[in-house]
Queue: 3 jobs
Job 1
Amino acid sequence: MMAGKMKNDPSKEEISGQTPQDGAADEGNGETSPVDKVVEEAVVWINNKSKTTIEKGSVEIGEYVLNEIFKGDIQQALSRNPRKQQSFSKICEHEDLHVDPRDLALWVRVAALDRLFDEKKLKLPGLTFSHKRELVKLSEQDDILILAQDAQMGGWSVRELRIEVQAMRGLKFPPDTGKILVQKLENSLPLLGDDLLLEFLEDPEKLKLDLSRVDRVRVLNSIKRLREDSGKFEKLVNKLDKDLMEIEGSGNRKSA
């Protein structure tokens, strides 16, 4: 009886739904195994849930600050420098704040933008939180309203909207500036001959707004390989290093 039970009992290898031979066959045929499929689906779900949760919290924080600190003042909250409000400025400078002040200022502007849309009775269901993050980079409300409606009617992606916002702000740098910059940093001679990128490197505001965090870290890594250069390039690299470290460092200190 014991032998018969052992013969019919599922093996440990079959717990995952396939035998080792099945897995080997899938791998040999270039097919995705059930385990790999589960992993891929889990990663997608986790990423989507994380994004939704983060955005929900950002919206709630922005609305809270708009109501409690700015007392619902849309104009002041939409200002390109909302930190001029005394109480808000103190919040941003508080040593126990776990949020990057730049993010907090942006969330408040997004909350004010939603309130502005409501006042103007604009229905813009196609605009996500990420779309609104791009829109609040503009300083003129008329520009924001025009571009928001264009994005809604045109079904623009966030990337497409970003290009239009940059054009309206008079920026000459494309959305993939980070990748171009890293490529240029691998070789100092082309970089020194590119006046546009030199202008970009010397502007901390552009480094903050137009580079992703990943690109900033990659640039920092590239800088380590360029320390041997001298003269103008050495001066430029030192300034770039300082600006990026301050941008990244301030965010890390607030998150600690």
Note: Residues 134 and 162 are 6 Å apart (CA to CA).
Job 2
Amino acid sequence: MYMIEISISPDTFNSFLRKFMFSKVDYLYQIHLILVESMGSYLPPVWRLFKGGKVLGYSVYSADEIISNRCTNLNGVSIRTKDFVVTKQEIVFDAHAAPTGRTKFNGKQVERDVFLNHVDWCKVNNTIPLSREDVYKNFIQKKFQGIIDVSNMQLTHYSLDKVSRRRHQEGVHIRKDLKSVTIPNVVISGSGSITNINALYDCLINGISRHTDFGFGTLLLR
């Protein structure tokens, strides 16, 4: 297993968008398209975007494997990896998620912010709702059951972001059926002790929440 760092140069970012005419979709989706174009099936299932176009995540492939097999050689996309092994029982983590859940709203099954679902449930049951932070912490806590015994958590980032959803077909980007949805963008930071190391590795590679595309669902250890 490797920790992977991917950097995208501004020139590559701009030239790619001009080529495929994706300038009107959100930034996370633009990054996703560039990564898919450059890495294909070697793209990590989950990743997190940081300022300056740097992407971090975990991969089962080394940089040499990815570079020698990737489908398109985008010179402005650099890839570095280093061996990663969890050596301590106690860990410090950042969990980046879009905490949403399916519910019935206005007669339809929809996917909504779990905090809004919680508030509606409290109204129906005449109870006092938890804070937004506590609802999100409980959401992450459930994802960690049987994996991490959490000792503390705090909400370190919250925003409501519009993200794009598009259909893909045979690896071809399709500009039809654009759908923009607003979802909560949340980072929960905390610490705890590992109770299932194999399940933890699976979370690091494959993500921790329903949304594991376009920069969401990433668990990073510090």
Note: The chain has six helices and twelve strands.
Job 3
Amino acid sequence: MLIYAIGMVILLAFVALFLFSFGSDPLGLSGGGSGHFPNALTWASPDPWAGDRFRGYEWATASELERIDQTKGFGHEVTFVPADKASTGNLVVSVNPIDHFTWSAVAKVSNDRCYALIVVHNRNDPELGSERYARFAPGAPCRAELATRETVRRAHAPQ
């Protein structure tokens, strides 16, 4: 009986530690605007493929991403705004379908920084593509029209 009680205490301690750790969201999974790269940018990234056909990004406008509820399944309601409108928070994503092969998005976080994501596919072979990231200066306008191949160049998401 004593071994059972000790086992239960240890199990409860691990459960409490787990809930405390993940309940406070140390990994930033909530997109809570902690001053780090907002997860909503990753969630917002549209799929340019329709089966085995590359359909591109022209369709991935703010209104279309809202219509299809692009971020459903992530547990957070993300609002999409057009490229010329500013993000006002980590769950308000300004998007820009730049061309058939390029799409960008930005979101502002609690420390007044604007983070950007751009997805670029190879024009000759769309299966080849990459994501690039940026963190703009505090107070910079947070509009997706400013997130271009020239301004978004980091290979890894900034923190």
Note: The beta strands are 49-50, 53-54, 79-81, 92-99, 102-108, 114-121, 129-136.
